[in-house]
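A protein record in our archive is deliberately plain, so that people and models can read it alike. The record that follows is passed on verbatim for readers who wish to inspect the format.
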Amino acid sequence: MSFITQEKFVAFFKMRKKQVLFWSILALAFILRCIRFAAVPDGINQDEAMGAMDAWALSKYGTDRYGTFLPVHFEAWKYSQMSVLLSYCMVPFIKVFGFSTVTVRLPMLLVSCGAVALVYLVSEKLFDERIALVAMALTAVNPWQFMQSRWSLDCNLFPHVFLLAFYLLLLGLEKRRYLYVSMLFFGLTFYCYGIAAYSVTAFLFVFFIWCLWKKQLKFREGLLCAVIFTLVALPEVIVLAINALHYGKSIEMPFFTMQFFPDSIRSADILFLNFSFAQLGRNAWALFSRVFLQLPDIFFNSIVAFEPLYHVSIPFVFIGIIVFTIRLFKEKQIEKQTQMLALWGFLITGIWVGLITFEVNINRVNIIFYPVILLCAYGISLVVDKFGKLFPVIVAAYAVSSVLFFATYFTEYAEESRHYYNRDFLDAVSEADSMEEYDSLYITGNLGWQFNQLATEILTQYACRIDARYYQSEDYTQRYHYIYPEKSGAELAEAVGDGLMVLYEDELQYLQFPYEVIDTVGEYFLLTVDKDSEDGVCN
């Protein structure tokens, strides 16, 4: 009797220890992501502003900012569209708490924290509790996962929704109701990132062929899954179809609108729609270098010296992938083999996305990072099992890397983010808009780090809180004008008249007329044409 009691006590203690570790890691992830939330990055990215403005319009009118009723896909940049699901997720937060940077970014924060817990559940299903806790801890302090949680880019929702669908898929192999629910979320990935049409579909097709072949699923079960998946994804598929076939008009339904985009160029981003072996080679190198060698990526996605996974992860990733692949082919138990194949397929799907997508960067191939993290945790467990004395060394390496990363993020990166997240521009335009004595504003397309008039226009709309109905009116075009001083020359003075200009500091050299500086905001100048100047000298 005492032996049984002791056994139960040990089991209870282990369970409590697991629970404490789980909630501690989750709390750590949440706290880290809440520190100076919405203040770092300071400002807003132009893609982020685009999704935010459409979300605000949806919350008020049930349309995007152009007046399209419940669009399946956003018009966004006209020549380049945007996925809708993240903006729809913003709507309830905007309705309840108002329109702000906090409510715009809050969905990504919550989803990313939830994904930390999901990593544990997936890893526990595939491996064991120990590896699950390691994978969860890696995710909590992972640079990629942390950085993408702090701002709202539409495609960054893709890996989280796919991860949830993947977990339900694993559960569904045992209990079919979860399998059918997983199809709902796999379908929703189409509204996270357009590449889902080529990647998620391929993943599911191969996986279900395997399951049917190995009699893990009945044909009618697979058919029902296909029906659910298709029904959810169908509106987005129709959008892709009418644009690929140049249908020429949008399709309006009672509950949503499937838009035709006459100026779209997004098909040029997909390799097999614009194939060349040279581009395939560039895609493969970009994928391998940024994910597996962890070479530097763009500012929004990584910090040099840390990259998406920490450099200490590189050997563990390769060990995990190689050993896992070998064990997959050696596994005899069909149920376990199917689970392992699913994870391997998750990884291959990420590689497939990297190969078929032009200009590969971290956010474009974001679906690959969860399976890489899972296999990294697996690689760590293999090394620790073989060389137990290395465990404290590994823990120390990740601890030091994490401390240095977060210290850099909240100091150097926080300061630099002001530039790339357009802080000065937003403040300058907002101040200019508050000067109601000027009927017209003439705003530069220069953001300092890039020249893009479409970007400055959407940032102006965000900074000035321009209502969608107002944006659609003639009053908007009469007040807000977007200029290129370098090319405008002397004609600019006549165009501006009594209006107020917002120019980047380097653009003053292109002004060929006298002007008066009204105010300066960071790197931007608010100025007017000085019509009273007699000597023609610029002030």
